[in-house]
Amino acid sequence: MNIIVKHCVGLAAGIAAWVCVGLAEEAANLPSVDDIIKRNVEALGGEKAMRKLKNRVARGKIELAVFGAEFPVIMRQTVPNKEMMELTIEELGTIRDVFAGSKGWTETPDGTVTEKKERELANKKIDADFYAYLNFKKNYSTIKLQGVEKVDGKKVFAVRMTPKKGDADTFYFDAVTGLVAGVASTAEMQGQEVKTRVLFRGYKAVDGVQIPHTLELEEPASAGFTIRLESVKHNVKPDSKWFKKAK
Fold it and tell me: Using CA atoms, how far apart are residues 156 and 26, in angstroms rounded to an integer?
């Protein structure tokens, strides 16, 4: 019996040593944060192509898990950091979530307007940056490579980015394509701290820049949704009403 035990211990030690060597080699071969960010920009189409774009209007459908139904959705973004999402629910009306550069709010069909508070505004100032993927170092004071993980079945480089003000975000860069496969963060919902994770799929080139056409909020599951874009247009003539309160 002792011989068998010793043999198993020796085998386990050998496996552990082999795994440790493999992990050490993988860690030694990890790219730098600068390399990951640079590759992402190249994969998206390059800085020159990205800066040619001044606004974006995306239309599609949003599937809300809680309703078990899908509804039309419009998302608009413009330089430098304005964005809005407009969701229309049949027989109920339109919900608008708006960030206008420094202030933000949500409008519901009954006319209620809820102003965004300090924490959400701090996050929105970063999230709404039209050139966010060119401005990682500008928007985040600390950027650190966490290591290699698996997200949505893909090997990714997990990079945690912490701003001076606001919540930290972990970006998952696809190790094969260089594109962002998802982003994890935290948010306050109904007075509680919750973890969030959005996955990006179905990248397609539009005007020389890769745009994910499927966005899935998989965490928290209770608020999960999937957006599938049907059209994406750039440099559209802006409307002054995009980022103004309806009433």
Answer: 13
| Residue tagged 């890769």 (tokens) | 210
pTM: 0.86
The length of the chain is 247
Give the C-alpha separation, 90 to 72, whole Å. 9
DSSP assignments along 209-226, one per residue: EEEEEEEEEEESGGG-EE
CB 79 within 8 A of CB 238: no
pLDDT tens digits along 159-209 = 999 999 999 999 999 999 999 999 999 877 666 788 999 999 999 999 999
Helix (H) or strand (E) holding 123: helix 118-127
DSSP 127-196: HT-TTGGG-HHHH-SEEEEEEEEEETTEEEEEEEEE-SSS--EEEEEETTT-SEEEEEEEEEETTEEEEE
* Greater model confidence, 155 or 194: 155
Domains of the chain: 31-234 (2.50.20.10)
Token pair for residue 227?
Answer: 């957006």
> What dihedral angle (degrees, nearest 10) is formed by the CA atoms of 98, 103, 108, 110?
-140
